[in-house]
C-alpha cells in the first residue's frame, strides 16, 4: 500500500492501473468464448454436457442437469441453522429496499382525446448465474434473485457449476430456494451463459442474464448482449474511503481490508486530508493484515491496487472521488451527509463511521451488485429496473390529430418518407 | 406480402425470418470494426482523420473537425422555415413527455438512525451518433438528444459524417442546435464510435453513446460496451398491426407501408381475426404501393418480411403479438384499450384508428428510438432513464448497527470472508 500526495499525475497513473483489471483487457479469450457459444447454439444440450464433462468433470444428461426437490431438501440438512436464520433476516431487508424501487405505469391525458403514457411490465424469464468453485457466496444469490422477484418476473432460472459428482454447494441451493428461484441447472462457465441466451432442450431461454463470474462468463455475457439483455459487466471489487481527521483509523483500516481480501485484483484506496490519519491507517492496516486468514490475497491486492492519497483539501478530495467513480465509497468526515450531496459517481455510498461496507454486502437491503472500475459514471447498482421494461403508449382521437396532421405530413416529407406522410393524409382525405 | 393462417409453424418460420435481419448475424464485420477501434484508441485523432479520408473522402484536421458557430448559422439559411417550425412544435411535445420520465432520489429512514436510499444523478457527457448519407432524419436528432437534455446531462456531443467537402446536412445541424447539442463533430462510422468511447485529442470521451447507424456503427457500439454505456443495438424497423373487422383497411394498409418504406429489411405484419379485412388490406397495400415514391424499397421489404396473418380468435392473436414483441404495435380493434392491457411486449403501442405510427415518429412526444426484432421483451424505448444512473445510500448509527452486528459477522464467516467480519467486529470491541 503506497502513501502518495494527491496530484493529477497520481490520479492518472492510479486510474491507468485500475483499468488494467478490466475484463475488456482479456480479449485473447474472446475467440475461445465465441467458439463455446456457437457450439451451444448449434448443438444445444449435447454441447453443454460435453463442456461440463471437460471443464467440471461431471456426467450430465437431460435427466440429471436440473436440481431436484430432493436435492434441495437435502441441502437444507447440510446448512448451519445460524446461516439460514441470517439469510432469512437479510432477505426481509433486501425485499423491503427493492420494493421501493418499483416503477409504475403512468399516462397523461387531455380532454380532446390525447393519451400518452408508459406501460411497465416485468420481463418473462430471468437467468441468474452463480459461480461455483472454492468461494461460495449465498449473499450473492439473494442479491441477484430478489430484484427479479420484486419486479414480478414470472420465472427465475439459475445456473451454477457442479462438482465432478454432480453436486452443487448446499448454501447456494438454500439461498436460491429462500430467494424464490424456480429452476436450478448444474452448469457453469460460458456454456451456461450460451444455454440461457439461446435455450437448449433442457435449459429454457432467458430474456435477461445477470450474475458475476470469471473472465469466460463475463466475455460470454458481452457476446450474447443483444440476443438477450445482461447486467453490467462486473470487474474486481473496490473500496474508496474518503476520510478527514475525525475518522477512526482502526475502522478505516478494517474497511479497506474488507475489500482487499476479495481477490488479488481488488482495490482499496483511502483519500484523506489528514496526514496523521494516513499514517495511523497504514499502521492499522499492517497490524490487521497479520491477523487475517486471507492475508496472502490482501498483501497482493494492497501491493498492486492499494493507495493512501493525501489531498490538499476536501474539495480536491471530492473531485478525485468523482473521477475514480468507485464501486463502494465510504464517507467518514465531518458533515458527511453534506459531502454525500456533492458525490456524482459511486456505486454505493456509506455515510458515517458505523456504516461499514460489509453492512451493505449482507444486510442493509441495497443491492451489493454494483458498477466497478469507473463504470459508476454510467451504470447503476442491480435493481428492480433491470427486470422491467417499458412500452410507450400513444392514443389520439380524430379531434386531437386534426389540428396537427399537416405538421406531421410536413415533417415526413422533409425526410422524404412519403409513405409516412400518406398514412396521415389518408385519414383526412374523405 | 403473404397471407397465411396463423399457426405455431407460421409464427416459428416468421420469427426465424425476422431474426435474419439482426445486426448480430453480421459477425464477419467484427474483426474489421475491432481493427478500427484499436487504431483509434491507439492513434486517436490521426486514425480518425485517416479513416474519414478513406471512407468519407474529407480532409479533416483538429482545426476543422468541429462544426463552428458560423456553420450552424449558415445551416439555418438552408433549412425551410416550415421544417424549422414543425421541429420546434415537435420539441415541445417531446420535452413534455420526457419530463414525466424523470426519476428522483429518495430515502427511507427510521428513528434509530437508519437511512437507506437511492441517489439519482445524470451522466456527465452523452455522445449522440447521427448517420449521414442520403437519408437525413432531423426527427432522429431530436429523439436522441432530448432525453439526455431532460435528464440534466451537462454536455451533449454529437458526431455525424460530412461529405467530401467537409459539409454536414443543414437539417441535421439545425435539429441539433434546436435540441441543445453542445458540440458537433464531422465524423462517422466505427471511427466516430471509437473516438467517443475512448476520447482523442479533439473528441472528448463520452460516458454513454446512443443513436442509430449502419452495421459498422452497431458492431462498434457493441464492442465498446463496458468501456462506456450504449443504448440497445438497433435493427431494422417493424410494424405489427392487430386489427379486427372494425378496422379501416385503407388506414391499416397505409400504416403498414409507412414502415415498409424505411429499408429493404423493414417488416410489416398484420394480424387479424377477419378474413375480409385481410383481403381488403392486401388490395389497399397494392393500390398505395404503386403511388408511393419509395415503391422499390417497399416491394422488397414486403416480399421478404411482409405478412398478413389470419388468427382463429383474438386471444391467439394477442399471444402472437406478445411472442413477436414488435417495435411498433397498432391496436385497431373493438375495446382497444382493454386489449392494450393484455400486451406484455412491444416498443410503442398505438391505440385506435387515429393513432397512426408516424404520429409517434414525429410528434406525439414519446421517443421513436424503440427496441426492434423481439428485443422489446427486455429493452425499453430510449428515455431519460438512459442518461441517469443511481447510487445506493446507506447510513447506520451505532444504535442501528449494534442489534444486528453479530448477524453480519455470522454471514461473513459463513462466506469465509474474515476481513469482512473483522470490519464489523472492530466497531464493538472496545
Poorly predicted runs of 5 or more residues of chain A: none
| Outline of chain A | globular
Instruction: Determine Rg of chain A (CA atoms, Å).
Output: 25 Å
CATH hierarchy: architecture of the largest domain in chain A: 3-Layer(aba) Sandwich
In terms of structural class, how would the helical and strand content of chain A be classed?
alpha/beta
Helix content of chain A: 40-55%
Our count of helices of chain A gives 18
Query: How many separate structural domains of chain A?
Result: 3
CATH topology descriptor of the largest domain in chain A: Rossmann fold
CATH class of the largest domain in chain A: Alpha Beta
Q: Measure the end-to-end span of chain A.
A: 79 Å
How much of the sequence lies in strands of chain A comes to 15-25%
- The number of distinct β-strands of chain A equals 14
Q: Please identify the oligomeric state.
A: homodimer
Biggest beta sheet summary of chain A: 6 strands, parallel
Amino acid at each position: 500500500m503506497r502513501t502518495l500526495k494527491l496530484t493529477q499525475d497520481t490520479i492518472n497513473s492510479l486510474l491507468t492501473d485500475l483499468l488494467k483489471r478490466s475484463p475488456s483487457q482479456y480479449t485473447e479469450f474472446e475467440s475461445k468464448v465465441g467458439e463455446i457459444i456457437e457450439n451451444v447454439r448449434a448443438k444445444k444440450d449435447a454441447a453443454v454436457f460435453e463442456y461440463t464433462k471437460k471443464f467440471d468433470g461431471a456426467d450430465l444428461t437431460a435427466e440429471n442437469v436440473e436440481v431436484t426437490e430432493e436435492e434441495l431438501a437435502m441441502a437444507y440438512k447440510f446448512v448451519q441453522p445460524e446461516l439460514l436464520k441470517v439469510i432469512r433476516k437479510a432477505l426481509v431487508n433486501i425485499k423491503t429496499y427493492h420494493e421501493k424501487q418499483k416503477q409504475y405505469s403512468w399516462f397523461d391525458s387531455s380532454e380532446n382525446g390525447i393519451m400518452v403514457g408508459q406501460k411497465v411490465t416485468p420481463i418473462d424469464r430471468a437467468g441468474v448465474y452463480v459461480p461455483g468453485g472454492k468461494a461460495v457466496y449465498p449473499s450473492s444469490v439473494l442479491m441477484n434473485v430478489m430484484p427479479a422477484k420484486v419486479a414480478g418476473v414470472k420465472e427465475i432460472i439459475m445456473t451454477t457449476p457442479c462438482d465432478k459428482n454432480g453436486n452443487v454447494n448446499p448454501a447456494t441451493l438454500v439461498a436460491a430456494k429462500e430467494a424464490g428461484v424456480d429452476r436450478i441447472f448444474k452448469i457453469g462457465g460460458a456454456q451456461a451463459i450460451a444455454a440461457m441466451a439461446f435455450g437448449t432442450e433442457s435449459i429454457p431461454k432467458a430474456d435477461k442474464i445477470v450474475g458475476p463470474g470469471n473472465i469466460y462468463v463475463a466475455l460470454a455475457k458481452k457476446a450474447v448482449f443483444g440476443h438477450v439483455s445482461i447486467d453490467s459487466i462486473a470487474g474486481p471489487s473496490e473500496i474508496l474511503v474518503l476520510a478527514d481527521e475525525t475518522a477512526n483509523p482502526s475502522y478505516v483500516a478494517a474497511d479497506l481490508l474488507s475489500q482487499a481480501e476479495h481477490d488479488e485484483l481488488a482495490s482499496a484506496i483511502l483519500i484523506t486530508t489528514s496526514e496523521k490519519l494516513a499514517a495511523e491507517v497504514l499502521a492499522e492496516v499492517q497490524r490487521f493484515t497479520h491477523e487475517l486468514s486471507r492475508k496472502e490475497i490482501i498483501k497482493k491486492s494492497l501491493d498492486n491496487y492499494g493507495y493512501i492519497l493525501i489531498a490538499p483539501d476536501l474539495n480536491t478530495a471530492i473531485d478525485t472521488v468523482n473521477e475514480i467513480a468507485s464501486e463502494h465509497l465510504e464517507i467518514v468526515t465531518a458533515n458527511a451527509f453534506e459531502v454525500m450531496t456533492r458525490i456524482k459517481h459511486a456505486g454505493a455510498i456509506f455515510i458515517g463511521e458505523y456504516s461499514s461496507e460489509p453492512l451493505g454486502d449482507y444486510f442493509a437491503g441495497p443491492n451489493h451488485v454494483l458498477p466497478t472500475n469507473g463504470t459508476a459514471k454510467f451504470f447503476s447498482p442491480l435493481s428492480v429496473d433491470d427486470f422491467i421494461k417499458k412500452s410507450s403508449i400513444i392514443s389520439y382521437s380524430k379531434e386531437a390529430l386534426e389540428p396537427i396532421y399537416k405538421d406531421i405530413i410536413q415533417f415526413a416529407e422533409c425526410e422524404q418518407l412519403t409513405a409516412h406522410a400518406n398514412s396521415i393524409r389518408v385519414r383526412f382525405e374523405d
